[in-house]
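Throughout this review, each integer encodes one residue's backbone shape. One record appears below.

===
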Amino acid sequence: MAQVELLQSLAESAPARVGDLAVRLRLAPSTVSGLISQMMAVGLVERGTDPADRRVAVVELSEHGRRQLADWHGAHRERIAAALSELDPRERAAIETALPALSLLVDRLAEQPREGSRSGGVGPCR
């Protein structure tokens, strides 16, 4: 799943430095670097140099990476559509009504520090 998130982040804003990707994804730079190495090996991303500072390496999607991401999005949409089609109209309407609040929830979660931070969050599940 981290690879898909990395592809999505690059699709939204590329080229990107490894450190910037690590901040966006809330992962350690070494983790992002490892993911990039794996993804380069299968041709999903390409490494280049920052046009503003040629000493700095940046990463961007390859054409293969763009196709893989588009395929993943298509499969995801089909899976959601199939699951929604199995619900009755009242259940689908309830989901539609809840979407704005769920979107706000996602935004708020994205603003919070990652786990390990003790800023008054909920404790571990038992």
Notes: Residues 2-63 form a domain with the Arc Repressor Mutant, subunit A fold (CATH 1.10.10.10). Strands lie at 45-50, 53-61. Residues 116-126 have pLDDT under 50 and may be disordered. The first strand starts at residue 45 and ends at 50.
